[in-house]
Amino acid sequence: MTDKKLYNIYGKEQLKERLENENFSRITCSFYNYHSIENLESTRDNLYNDLNALNILGRIYIAKEGINAQFNIPDYNWDAFLSLNNKYPFLKNIKIKKAVQEGVSFLKLKVLIKDEIVAWGISRKEYNMDKTGQHLNAVEFNNLIAEEDTLLIDMRNRYESEVGRFENAICPQSKRSKDLIKEVKKLIENKKNKKIAIYCTGGIRCEKASSHLIKEGYENVFQLDGGIIEYAHQIKEKNLKSKFIGKNFVFDNRLGERITDDVIAECHLCDSPSDEHINCNNDACHILFIICEDCSAELDGCCSSECQEIYHLPIKDQKEARKKFAKKFKNNFRPLPVRN
User: Fold this and answer.
1) pLDDT in tens, 99-123
2) How far apart are CA 135 and CA 142, in angstroms?
3) Strand 57-63 with 66-74, pairing
4) Is residue 260 part of a domain?
5) Between the chain's N and C termini, which has fewer beta carbons within 10 Å?
């Protein structure tokens, strides 16, 4: 282990400036692997140092059950990253999905230890990762969901499916991942003999969900291999009609990749067509919501006039206002300002 710090020491503006001054391209990508990982702390430390040495930026979660990674990498270090599979068993045979659209995805590197790489809080006895749903490519998935007796389930939260989804998909209204699997099970209750097709962003949630559903007695579970990201690449390569419409929400600074030109969502403030997610500019709030250009200009990228007032205060006064604002929502889940 080296003596390098295992955390970022620069501020947000410094990080942005460093990226702007880079004279090479970055590749945004993701992968996951359900693979037993022991000695989590030493693995985290070593992995951080190795990724940091390759100038990789991103968010990597490791747990005893495996790894979930979203990151960007300098193009000239691609082969060097792939060679790490000789050092880490959980990097062997991974399927790396490259972004549909590039952009400033990550500013710094984080390698974090988690209890689960998909945080649903279900017991290890409730799923077996050796038994998962049948993986389908884009053509196979399109054919399956065209069948009348197929139940098509979106394995993502409301704020994700709001901006993009497969046509005729059943979309859970959950706002938090820990509520998602419970809601899905309610939606398909007493339908164990039906064909169930599931999809998510990159496949990791479907992998665990399909295993759990099979354990629960569902007989015909199918999943979109590689998720929406891989589907988008395949429909382009094979010149297929996309059954997914709108944007694919992603968990990085881009907040979305456009799959089709359809705008299926509305501004949370004025109801005009928009699928642009932003975080409220009031740092004490920082809520994720959809806003149109007019409302963004009028409210300076804030979700309300209250937040706009705080945003325009001097920094010292902002900090005091943030304390009061944070206290106001201390014991409550901060709700999205969504329309009913």
Assistant:
1) 999 999 999 999 999 999 998 888 8
2) 13
3) antiparallel
4) no
5) C
